[in-house]
Amino acid sequence: MSTENELFSAVDQLLERVSQDPLPPPAERKRLREAAGLSQDQIAAALQTRRETVGGWEAGRTEPRPPKRAAYARLLEGLAERFAGAESAASPAVTPAAEVAPQAPQAPPASPASPASPASPASPASPASPVSPASPVSPASPVSAASSPPPARRPASAARPAVATASPPPPGRGVREASGTAAVAADARYRHGPPPPPGRGVREASGTAAVAADARYRHGPLAVVDAGADRQVVAYCVGGLVLDVPAKSLPALVEWTLAEAGLGAPRLSANGRDADPVLVLTDAAAERYGLPSRLSEQERHAGRLPDDHKVVKQLAKAQWQLTRRGLGPWARIYRPAQGGKRSCVQLCVLGWDALDSRSWGRAAELPPAELARLLGTYASRVITPRGSTAVNGLELMTALHPPTRAGRPDADGRRHSEYNPGSLGSRPVDCAPPEAPDGHPLLAHLPRFHQRGPAEVLLEEAYDWARPLTDEECLRPYVVGVDVNMAFAAGANGAVVGLGAPTHVTGPVFDAKVPGSWLVDLSGVELDPRLPSPFTPTGERPEGPAWYATPTVAYAVELGYEVRPAEGYLRRETGRYLDAWYQRLRDAYVATMADLGVTTGMEPQAFLEAMARHREVDPDLALVLSAIKATVKGGIGKLRERPRGGGWRPGQPWPALLRPTWRPDIRAAVISRTRTNMHRKMLKLAAATGRFPVAVLSDCAVYASDGPSPLDVLLHEDGTPVKGGFQLGVSPGMVKHEGTQTVLWAEGVREEYGSALNLARYIKDGRISAQDSGE
Fold it and tell me: Of all residues in the chain, what percent carry a pLDDT higher than 90?
């Protein structure tokens, strides 16, 4: 029998458990953190724990234990006081508070049995409270159309938040039901997390700038505008909301958007600016406003409508301006800012290939409501789209690190902008000569057909390397490819880059902490020939002195070799400029993968099974995933954008050079880190298991294997992971299964097309096109 002391001890433990600090539900913990713009890493650092632990608390897999529990509870309580209403009931997408400020409480939807009267759309206490869409539902529990209310459809003037002064809508323009309940049913997939608990709503709005700012964007960041056969125009917003659009012309549509639509998004940085509203025009809407549903061949080549087009003239007559890009697939329509207030609308014309299928898949073919949800999810997790995914990737860098900030007031009390520390500034800087791509003005003195060698140009590119299989590898039945998740994002994480112009130095002593370009001879570094060289994109051993970015030279030192640079173009002003960019894209990727059923911390086999079906869970949301990945690669590529279009001649400047974000050195550093990270893991795996890659393409490595699964390649014989090698998982930098083929397939491909054909390019489905084969 238990002694009296043991019984009392057990009771004391129970009392201790029930007296612990109360915590909100897991989803609310995540919402509060995102509302404060904090990362899991920051929470973990403050509580002296690991990021994975914080992720477990937010996912509900684990609970904090004393003494961290009390500190965590105090943090959440403080965040709840500040961000109790940060999650808008009108926006289905997950919206971090760095992007969306607290929103005013909204009235519940009118009962279907007793719809609101057009003459009296809301109660006297809140005469213009908007109608809420369907309540949040877990992505894993689809809502049937029969059990979901239809999306609210009303004029924007009928949807004023409680914190704003507004008149009731005119008779006949109140709340109306709309058909298409399936659209709202799908809407639940883009929401998670419970609504704020009773009594935790938005506080009084007087003097609260955050609430007032959020009220301006009560209908989300964007709308998809469509027109019916009766020429009636409607705008599909995020959250299932549908607004009647009274505008009869494109200038009137712009006016309506800025005055009544309630579209836009708060800034991502305290020193940044709010996102302009985006209008996505369907073919029917484009034709309704006098635009062609498709561009002609000449217009498509120019990327815009001609300046004498009637709609362009309409805009000019109404005193609206266009940027130098003109009225193209992505157009910015604006008036000069007055009193610090912007008047700008971004236009996206679907029929003009604004949503490139290489990045967005079939997004442009979706119904308007579905497209609004897809783009709204991307906007809330990444950035409000304002161009291609590459443009968005670059714009996200600037939005998170604006070039200027408000300075101290002068003697007259006026504030002037000043340099924002940690940013790239507001003026472009020249690159170093070896960093300049061919045709750059810095190279205008070179002969016209001069081909620069490694000692003249910085060639930091991703891997494209392959080798023949050994006799032993040919006896294995399979070749298995593994692919690094968000490889270039992982390469950007923690990268120390130069913030200013380079300084030329002769005979410098190498310092791994100094970003820049170094002329050094690494041809003496000897590695196993079954591995690609970490110093060249082709994987071939360098033949003499060449220019390298700092991470490449640092890796040579890590391998134990002495380096003696002959020259360097070094940047002494440094910073981790891309960290916030990486963190936002990482969170967007991980959150979207979680919605598709792939979460952090999964066991390897469960992860592989979830990855095999994740795109089938929600094909529309999988398009968001593709866009996020394209944003990473495109953003890094834009750092060294080349000339586009006709009329340019080598030696002449091109428009991209005028951007402070035209930084080929930063691109080189990220690619260098990505490639050396890849080599480091391949080297660790080879040392531990004796397995060497037979092909590497960018972030994909192919291995000969005894089995068809990545587990047959990446683990020790006892099933344990290789320390420092590739790890299966969803986080950036970890790997997933790219594809499996037979060794007979691999040998047949090489025999038919030659050993130069990279197996990693075709490992996913085994298909080789005539274009790839050179036929």
Answer: 65
Count Cβ atoms within 10 A of the Cβ of residue 494 and give its class: 0-12 exposed, 13-18 middle, 19 or more buried: exposed
The tens digit of pLDDT for each residue in 352-389 reads: 999 999 999 999 999 999 999 999 999 999 999 999 99
Long-range contacts: 5-8, Cβ < 8 Å, 24+? none
Question: Does the residue 262 lie in any domain?
Answer: yes
Spatial separation of the C-alpha atoms in residues 610 and 736, rounded to whole Å:
11
Whether 66 and 198 map to the same domain: the answer is no
Q: How far apart are CA 405 and CA 415, in angstroms?
A: 10
Q: Does any domain span residue 239? A: yes
Query: What angle, 0 to 180 degrees and rounded to 10, lies between the N-to-C axes of helices 26-35 and 51-59?
Result: 120
The range of the structural domain enclosing residue 174 comes to 145-387
**Using CA atoms, how far apart are residues 76 and 100, in angstroms rounded to an integer?**
19
Contact (Cβ atoms closer than 8 angstroms) between residue 165 and residue 112:
no
- Residue 566 DSSP SS3: coil
Which position has the token pair 């700008």?
Answer: 344
Tens digit of pLDDT for each residue in 645-701? 778 899 999 999 999 999 999 999 999 999 999 999 999 999 999 999 999 999 999
Q: What is the pLDDT of residue 13?
A: 52
Give the other-Cβ count within 10 Å of 446's Cβ: 17
* CATH number of domain containing 31: 1.10.260
End-of-domain residue from the set 387, 402, 423: 387
Spatial separation of the C-alpha atoms in residues 498 and 425, rounded to whole Å: 12
Asked whether residue 165 falls in the same domain as residue 31, the answer is no
CB 429 within 8 A of CB 660: yes
Check if the beta carbon of residue 260 is closer than 8 Å to that of residue 235. no
Q: How far apart (Å, rounded) are the C-alpha atoms in residues 354 and 560?
A: 50
Single residue among 33, 52, 82 that ends a domain in this structure? 82
CA–CA distance, 766 with 133 (Å, rounded to integer): 45
Residues 6+ apart with CB under 8 A from 532: 463, 465, 538, 539, 679, 682, 693, 696
Strand partners, 36: none
CB distance 294 to 352 below 8 Å: yes
Calculate the dihedral angle through the C-alpha atoms of 669, 675, 676, 680, rounding to the nearest 10 degrees: 150
- The answer as to whether 157 is a domain residue is yes
What is the value of pTM for the model shown?
Answer: 0.75
Omega cis (within 30) before 67: yes
Alpha helices in 456-524 (DSSP H): 471-474, 487-492
Decide if pLDDT at 121 tops 70.
no
Confidence label for 20 from pLDDT (cuts 50, 70 and 90): low
